[in-house]
Specification:
The complex is a heterodimer of chains A (592) and B (84). Chain A is mainly alpha-helical. Chain A folds into two domains: 3-304 and 396-467 and 477-589, Up-down Bundle (Sodium/glucose cotransporter); 307-386, no CATH class. Chain A contains 23 helices and four strands. Chain A has helices spanning 3-24, 30-35, 42-53, 56-69, 74-98, 103-110, 114-147, 151-201, 206-209, 220-230, 243-259, 261-264, 273-309, 319-326, 385-393, 398-436, 442-465, 471-484, 486-495, 501-524, 547-565, 571-580, 586-589, and strands at residues 330-332, 356-360, 366-368, 379-381. The longest helix of chain A has 51 residues, at 151-201. With 84 residues, chain B is mainly alpha-helical. Chain B has one domain (2-79). A two-stranded antiparallel ribbon of chain B has the order 1-2. The chains are: A mainly alpha (592), B mainly alpha (84).
Chain lengths: 592, 84
C-alpha cells in the first residue's frame, strides 16, 4: 500500500477516535468545561499535560532544529523539561490548593485587584494566540505534505476537529482526547526511532544508540563530529552560541514553560494537592520519553543526511530527495557544474527560502534564482523535514512514514485545543463572569465559553491560513513573555506574603513591556517602519530568545521594590497565602 | 498552635525545595552549560560527559527530582497531619 493510502487510513482512524471521545465526554457545567470537574486522575492528567505541552514544534521541528544546531540545541531540551521541575516544586501544588479555574483568577484574587486580573488576562491572550497560530500552521503543513491537500483545507479540517471536542467537551473533552493523542504521538515518534537506532547502531534504544558505535566500530558521535568538521561545520557536540546566551535562553525557556497558562491550568483538574505533584512528575516522565529520543533522532538524521547527499551525483540521489525538492523544502543549485551535491558550511541561498523558477536543469533538478554564489554550499534543507523525512531517508516501511503524519497531527491538535480553552476561559470567566456580568448564570457562562472558543478557533484558523510574517519568530518568544509576566507574579504571590498589588502590577507591566520592546527592536522589527537591529547591539550580549531571563529579573526587582514602598496586602489576602501553603482541604476550595 | 505548626511545615518544605533546586541547577546549568567543556574531557561510552548532561542526563535527573519531591512531601504531609 502507498504512503498516501496508509496516511489516510491512520488519520481517519485517529480522528474517529477523537470524535468518539468528544461525544462521550460532553461537559454539562462550567466546572466540567473549565477544569473537567476537578476529577481527573493523576495518570490521565500526566498524559494530557504531556500532549498539551508537546506541540507541532516539539514533534516536527525540534529534532530537526537540534540536528542543525548540535550542542546549541540543548537549550530546547533542558529548557522545555527543566521548567517542569519549577512547575512541580513551586507552582502546581499551591495553585491547585488555591482551587480556582484560571491563572488570572489567582492573580486577581491574590492581588485583590481587577486591574491585576485584566493585566493577567491580556498576558494570557497574547501568549496563547502567538502560540496557537503556529499549531494551526503545523496542521496545515502535515495535511499538505502527506495528503496533497491544500494548506487552507488542511487548516479548515484541523479547526473543525478541534472545534468538535473543545466545543462539546471543554476541558473534559480535551483532557480525554489529549490522553488518546499522547498515545498516538508517542507511538508515532518512537517507532521510527527504534527502527533507525537499530539500523545504525545495532541498539534498539535510541538513547543508548546515540552513544553507541556504527558499523565501522567508531562511536556515532565521533563520526558525526568528524563529518561535520570535514565539511566545515562546527563540531556537532560543541556549539557556537556563547555560554551566557545558552544559559539565558535555557533559563527563559524553563521559566516560560512554568508560566504558560495552558500548562498551569491542567493542574487545576486533579482532585487533591498530592495529585497535582504526582501528575507533574508523570507529565515530565511522559515528556522525557520524547525529549530524550529527539536528540538521538537528530544525530541519526544528521549523519544519514550527510552520508546520503554529500558529494553524491544528483542523478543517483534517492527518491525522497526529489519528493521533498518538489514540495520546495529541499533545493539544490549546482554552483560548480559538476552534477554532484556539495553540502558544506555557508548559506546556500541569498535569502531565507528558495525561489524556484519554473524550469528544470540538465539533471532534472528544480532551478532556483536566489542561489548565493559566494559560498560553496549547494544544498538548502528545511529543518522541519528532518523528522518527517527521516523514516524515508532510513528506508522504513510505508506504514511507519504514515504514522509520523498522524503523530504530527495529534501533537498539533492537542496543543491547539489546550490553548483555545485558555483563550475562551479568559474571556468567558475572567472577563465576563468576573468583571462585566458577575451575576451571569452557570448556563449563560457555559454558553459564553462555547461562543468564545468558536471565535478563538476561527481567529486561530485565519492565522494558520494567512500566517503573518512574524508568527514563526514570535512563537519562541511566547516563552519570554510568559517568563516576564506570569512566573514572577505567581511565585512571589506564593512565596512572598508581603507582595501586594502595586508591586505585582508594576512588575508585570514593566516585564512584559520590556520584553515586547526588545522583541520588536531586535527580532521582528516593525513592518515598514524599521528593520530589526543587529546582534552586535544586543544588551549584555543576550539574544531576544534569552531576553526573557533579563525581563523576569527586572520584573522581580521592580515587584519587590514597589511592594516594600507601598502598604502591605490586607489581612484576608495574607490568610489566603497562608492557606495555600497547606496542602489539605483542597477539595472544598473548589466549591467556593 | 496551628499557625506554629503551619510555619514549621513551611520551613521544612522550603529546605527541601532549596536542596532539590540546587541539584536542578547543578545538572543543567552547571554540568550541561557552565562546566560543559571541562566535563567533555570525560567520556561516557560514545558521549562526552558535558554533552550527555546537556542532552540526556539533566532530563533524567529532572524526572527523578520530581518523584523524590513527591515522596518527601507525602511524608511531610503525614508528619504534620496535612495528608488526606
Amino acid at each position: 500500500m502507498s504512503v498516501e493510502a496508509w496516511t489516510w487510513i491512520l488519520v481517519i482512524l485517529t480522528f474517529a477516535l477523537y470524535f468518539g471521545i468528544a461525544i462521550w465526554a460532553r461537559a454539562g457545567s462550567t466546572k466540567e468545561f473549565y477544569v473537567a470537574g476537578g476529577g481527573v486522575s493523576p495518570l490521565a492528567n500526566g498524559m494530557a499535560t504531556a500532549a498539551d505541552w508537546m506541540s507541532a514544534a516539539s514533534f516536527i521541528s525540534m529534532a530537526g532544529l537540534i540536528s542543525f544546531m548540535g550542542y546549541d540545541g540543548s537549550v530546547f531540551l533542558m529548557g522545555w523539561t527543566g521548567g517542569y521541575v519549577l512547575l512541580a516544586l513551586l507552582l502546581a501544588p499551591y495553585l491547585r490548593k488555591f482551587g480556582k479555574f484560571t491563572v488570572p483568577d489567582f492573580i486577581g484574587d491574590r492581588y485583590y485587584s481587577n486591574t491585576a486580573r485584566t493585566v493577567a488576562v491580556l498576558c494570557a491572550l497574547i501568549v496563547s494566540f502567538t502560540y496557537v497560530a503556529g499549531q494551526m500552521r503545523g496542521v496545515g503543513i502535515v495535511f499538505s505534505q502527506f495528503l496533497q491537500v491544500d494548506i487552507v483545507w488542511g487548516v479548515i479540517i484541523g479547526m473543525s476537529v478541534v472545534l468538535v471536542f473543545a466545543f462539546l467537551g471543554g476541558m473534559k473533552g480535551i483532557t480525554y482526547t489529549q490522553v488518546a493523542q499522547y498515545c498516538v504521538l508517542i507511538f508515532a515518534f518512537m517507532v521510527p526511532a527504534f527502527f533507525i537506532s537499530l539500523q545504525m547502531t545495532g541498539n534498539i534504544i535510541p538513547q543508548i544508540g546515540m552513544g553507541g558505535t556504527v558499523s565501522d566500530g567508531t562511536y556515532l558521535l565521533d563520526k558525526l563530529d568528524n563529518l561535520s568538521t570535514q565539511l566545515g561545520f562546527k563540531e556537532y557536540t560543541s556549539g557556537s552560541k556563547t555560554t551566557w546566551d545558552v544559559f539565558a535562553i535555557t533559563l527563559a525557556l524553563m521559566v516560560g514553560t512554568a508560566g504558560l497558562p495552558h500548562v498551569i491550568v491542567r493542574f487545576f483538574t486533579v482532585p487533591k494537592v498530592k495529585d497535582a505533584r504526582k501528575s507533574a512528575g508523570l507529565a515530565l516522565l511522559f515528556i522525557a520519553i520524547l525529549y530524550t529520543t529527539a536528540p538521538a533522532i537528530a544525530v541519526f538524521a544528521r549523519t544519514n543526511l550527510i552520508e546520503t547527499v554529500s558529494d553524491t551525483e544528483y542523478e543517483q540521489i534517492p527518491a525522497w530527495f526529489k519528493n521533498w525538492e518538489n514540495t520546495g523544502l529541499i533545493a539544490w543549485a549546482d554552483k560548480n557544474d559538476d552534477g554532484k551535491i556539495q553540502y558544506v558550511t555557508g548559506a546556500a541561498l541569498s535569502s531565507k527560502k528558495p525561489v524556484f523558477t519554473e524550469e528544470r536543469g540538465q539533471y532534472g533538478q528544480r532551478l532556483i534564482s536566489n542561489a548565493n554564489m559566494s559560498t560553496a554550499n549547494e544544498l538548502y534543507v528545511d529543518r522541519d523535514i528532518m523528522v518527517l523525512a527521516n523514516p524515508e531517508i532510513a528506508k522504513l516501511p510505508n506504514w511507519v512514514i504514515a504514522l509520523v503524519a498522524a503523530g504530527g497531527l495529534a501533537a498539533a491538535l492537542s496543543t491547539a485545543a489546550g490553548l483555545l480553552l485558555v483563550i475562551s476561559t479568559s474571556v468567558s470567566h475572567d472577563l465576563i463572569k468576573k468583571q462585566l456580568k458577575p451575576n451571569i448564570s452557570d448556563k449563560g457562562e457555559l454558553l459564553a465559553a462555547r461562543i468564545s472558543i468558536l471565535v478563538a478557533i476561527i481567529i486561530a484558523g485565519l492565522f494558520g491560513i494567512y500566517p503573518p510574517g512574524f508568527v514563526a519568530a514570535v512563537v519562541a518568544l511566547a516563552f519570554g513573555l510568559a517568563a516576564a509576566s506570569f512566573f514572577p507574579a505567581i511565585i512571589l504571590g506564593i512565596f512572598d506574603k508581603r507582595m501586594n498589588k502595586q508591586g505585582a502590577i508594576a512588575g508585570m507591566v514593566v516585564g512584559v513591556s520590556l520584553m515586547l520592546y526588545y522583541m520588536i527592536v531586535y527580532k521582528t522589527g516593525l513592518i515598514g517602519v524599521m528593520d530589526p537591529r543587529p546582534a552586535s547591539e544586543w544588551w549584555f550580549n543576550t539574544s531576544p530568545e534569552g531576553f526573557g531571563t533579563i525581563a523576569m529579573i527586572v520584573n522581580i526587582i521592580i515587584s519587590v521594590t514597589v511592594s516594600r514602598l507601598t502598604p502591605a496586602p490586607p489581612k484576608e489576602v495574607q490568610e489566603i497565602v497562608e492557606n495555600i501553603r497547606i496542602p489539605s482541604g483542597a477539595g472544598e476550595a473548589h466549591a467556593h | 498552635m496551628s499557625t506554629n505548626k503551619a510555619t514549621k511545615y513551611w520551613k521544612e518544605n522550603i529546605s527541601y525545595l532549596m536542596i532539590l533546586l540546587l541539584i536542578w541547577f547543578a545538572v543543567s546549568f552547571g554540568a550541561g552549560i557552565l562546566f560543559k567543556d571541562a566535563l567533555n574531557e570525560i567520556r561516557l561510552g560514545g558521549f562526552k560527559l558535558g554533552f550527555w548532561f546537556a542532552q540526556q542526563g539533566s532530563i533524567y535527573v529532572f524526572v527523578i527530582l520530581i518523584f523524590v519531591y513527591v515522596r518527601l512531601m507525602n511524608k511531610l504531609d503525614r508528619k504534620y497531619g496535612y495528608d488526606e
